[in-house]
Specification:
The structure holds two protein chains of two kinds. Chain A is an all-alpha fold. Chain A has 15 helices and two strands. Chain A has a single domain (about 40-325), classed as ABC transporter involved in vitamin B12 uptake, BtuC (Orthogonal Bundle), CATH 1.10.3470. Chain A has a two-stranded antiparallel ribbon. In chain A, helix 6 packs antiparallel against helix 11 (about 245-270), helix 8 (about 205-225) packs antiparallel against helix 11 and helix 12 (about 285-295) runs parallel beside helix 14. Chain B starts with 7 loop residues before the first helix and ends in a 13-residue tail after the last helix. In chain B, about 50% of the residues are buried. The chains are: A mainly alpha, B mainly alpha. Chains A and B meet through strand 1, helix 6, helix 7, helix 12 and helix 14 of A and helix 4, helix 10, helix 12 and helix 13 of B.
């Protein structure tokens, strides 16, 4: 008979080790999935996890690691603050889209002016502000009307997607694009482009922002009163209220911060790797970032590592698509599986597993 | 714009069809939440049901088998959630999100070979002379079987929760799992059964989309229907008949905006398309702003982890 016994406090060893265990279990289960799809599981796993870093074409893939990882880390850092306090913003995808639209709109409004020192910082501000305001909708509805922030933030993703489509077809459409949907390409507009800072490294301003976000989140959580309040609320909402934490303030801060970071990620993406506002601009970073946040144990440094690992599955997945014909959806299922395993093995950090006879209840 | 092209009778009839997927998913989720479990994976179970039903129907040529396959597929996926939350005691919010993310990926994977295929047609129920009744005939008696099954489910769930002993046990588990456990009820088993029922209903809802409403398979075709179903459960204050009202209200908005698009209303299509989501949010706000009532209606143990020795 297997029994679970609650630990007085979460085991530190298992807290650190469960993500590793989850990744290993996912590789096994993913291998089985790939074998069912008729691919050699060992080759598939190697193509996804090994080749992009150490294979023949690694020089190309390594830079992609940062390009794909930066938005994931930026968004996940923001989400982790709320998740710690039990505030569930799962609409980061929408905030990401709105941030991109706002950032791009500011950049395009100045076209073809040549004042990068003015335009690019303004775009960054607009991106962050756009995401922030979009996240303020669930925040204010939550604090004023007690409306569930999970449902509101998620439903707003679909609204944001429609706004994106109408922008790509309407106000932001490239006037010289012969009627095709999509805006001007910001990468070809010097003053607004988020170009690579070091050639072939993949480092753009979004990557820098992601690193800054990791450091700031670490300082906030460990050295600042607000960070303490976030952690306290997550562990014991009742104790937090006695300690004088104002729950509404936390809701506004956590949703606002995650919205602003998601908006930033969207702005850096549209001005750099993506280049333009188009109907299918968003590719689900906002949802994958949820997995990143959990895989990183809601800890800034953990999220940094988890973001890079998740970026690796994207890049490796694309490589496996090209070389092995592995369907794109397989990677999506693989990422979902990872979160499942993580949540399952998490039981080890909160409970002791006892094997033996049950005591009389 | 030509408003006269909108026929109110056809509008009401198509409203019932448009609401059915959400109605099915919402009544399933209502039972799950009544047992004290918050499963945010409705969207994932719906889309897996959509492709399972579609694949089975296409391969077997029988829509009925398709719906059975969809219910089984949805229930199987929900068991993943059930095992994780009931035996591995994982956080229900996070696990539900995982279920949705995984379901979207899995369905796209299964559905690769089924893009652009037409499923076998589902016939309408033949009510004979009833279908020729002037007004009621169009509205009530010219639908496919699933519309009536969904209405039957609402009545069934209502009666089950209100009048049956099993329904009482389910509600007891949802209100206080510790008390129910102390009385000797098996909290986990009750909840697993509720979760399985919710999964099957969500699967049916998804299959209704892919087999009847659209009817076609496209990736991500549920487009938030599962989340709207979750919102409707809150809107309904966990009461079965109000789920019907909520789902038909939402279906009405969806159908109306589609008709306005077709009639050529001078508003960009995207703004009409986002209206169902915005109205769902508005309705949520109105319902939840009444703090006292909303919190009283929710099952007291909703979303809490049950660990027997604690």
């Amino acid at each position: 008979m297997i029994r679970l016994e609650k630990r007085p406090q979460p085991s530190q060893f298992w807290t650190a080790f469960t993500p590793v265990l989850a990744v290993m279990l996912t590789m096994v289960a993913g291998g089985i999935l790939f074998a069912i799809l008729g691919k050699d599981p060992f080759v598939a796993i190697k193509t996804i996890f090994w080749d992009p870093i150490l294979g023949d074409f690694a020089f190309y893939y390594r830079s992609q690691l940062l390009v794909k990882g930066a938005p994931l880390i930026l968004i996940a850092i923001g989400l982790s603050l709320g998740f710690r306090a039990g505030i569930w913003n799962i609409g980061a995808e929408g905030q990401y889209i709105i941030g991109a639209i706002c950032g791009a709109a500011v950049g395009l409004a100045f076209y073809p002016m040549e004042a990068r020192w003015l335009i690019f910082p303004l775009m960054i501000l607009a991106g962050a502000l756009g995401g922030f305001l979009w996240a303020m909708i669930p925040a204010i509805l939550k604090t004023r009307f007690n409306t569930n922030e999970i449902l509101v933030s998620l439903l707003l993703v679909y609204v944001a997607e429609q706004i994106l489509a109408s922008m790509a077809l309407g106000p932001l459409r490239n006037p010289e694009g012969s009627g095709f949907p999509g805006s001007r390409n910001l990468r070809q507009y010097e003053a607004a482009s988020n170009q690579e800072l070091i050639a072939n490294s993949g480092v753009h301003w979004g990557v820098i922002a992601a690193f800054i976000a990791v450091i700031l989140a670490y300082v906030l959580l460990n050295r600042h009163m607000l960070g303490f309040q976030i952690r306290l609320t997550g562990q014991s909402p009742r104790a937090a209220r006695f300690a004088g934490v104002r729950p509404n303030l936390l809701v506004v801060f956590c949703l606002g911060a995650s919205g602003a970071l998601a908006g930033l990620a969207g702005m850096f993406e549209v001005a750099g790797p993506a280049g333009q506002i188009s109907i299918d601009f968003n590719v689900g970073y906002g949802f994958t970032a949820i997995i990143v946040a959990f895989l990183g144990r809601l800890h800034p440094v953990g999220i940094l590592l988890a973001g890079l690992l998740m970026a690796l599955t994207y890049i490796g997945g694309e490589a496996a698509q090209a070389t092995l014909g592995l369907p794109a959806a397989a990677i999506q299922a693989f990422q979902g599986m990872l979160l499942f395993f993580l949540l399952a093995v998490d039981v080890l950090s909160n409970y002791r597993v006892r094997i033996g006879t049950t005591e009389a209840a | 714009m030509d408003l006269s092209s909108i026929n109110p009778l056809v509008l009401i009839a198509s409203l019932m069809v448009a609401s059915t997927p959400i109605l099915l998913a919402a009544i399933g989720e209502l039972v799950v939440e009544k047992s004290g479990v918050l499963n945010l994976g409705v969207e994932g179970m719906m889309i897996v049901g959509a492709i399972c039903g579609f694949a089975v129907a296409v391969e077997s040529g029988s829509p009925a088998l398709g719906f059975i396959g969809a219910a089984l597929g949805g229930a199987a996926l929900s068991m993943l959630f059930g095992i994780l939350t009931q035996y591995f005691l994982s956080n229900q919010v996070a696990t539900g999100l995982a279920l949705t993310l995984f379901g979207l990926g899995l369905s796209a994977l299964i559905g690769q070979g089924y893009i652009g295929i037409k499923p076998p047609a589902t016939g309408d129920v033949n009510f004979g002379p009833l279908a020729d009744l002037p007004v009621l005939g169009t509205i009530l008696f010219r639908h496919d079987l699933m519309v009536y099954i969904s209405l039957g489910l609402i009545a069934g769930v209502w009666a089950f929760l209100k009048y049956s002993r099993a329904g009482l046990i389910l509600r007891a588990v949802g209100e206080s799992h510790d008390a129910a456990h102390a009385l000797g009820y098996n909290v986990r088993t009750v909840r697993l059964m509720a979760i399985g029922f919710g999964g099957a209903c969500a699967g049916l809802g998804g299959a209704y989309l892919s087999l009847i409403r659209v009817p076609q398979w496209t990736e991500g075709m549920t487009a938030g229907a599962g989340w709207i179903a979750l919102a409707i459960v809150v809107f309904a204050s966990w009461r079965p008949w109000r789920v019907l009202v909520g789902a038909y209200l939402f279906g009405g908005v969806t159908v109306l905006q589609l008709n306005l698009q077709a009639a050529g209303l001078d508003v960009p299509v995207q703004y009409l398309s986002m209206s169902p989501y915005i109205i769902t949010i508005l309705v949520l706000v109105i319902i939840s702003s009444n703090r006292g009532r909303a919190s009283l209606a929710a099952p007291a143990a909703l979303g809490r982890v049950f660990h027997a020795s604690s």
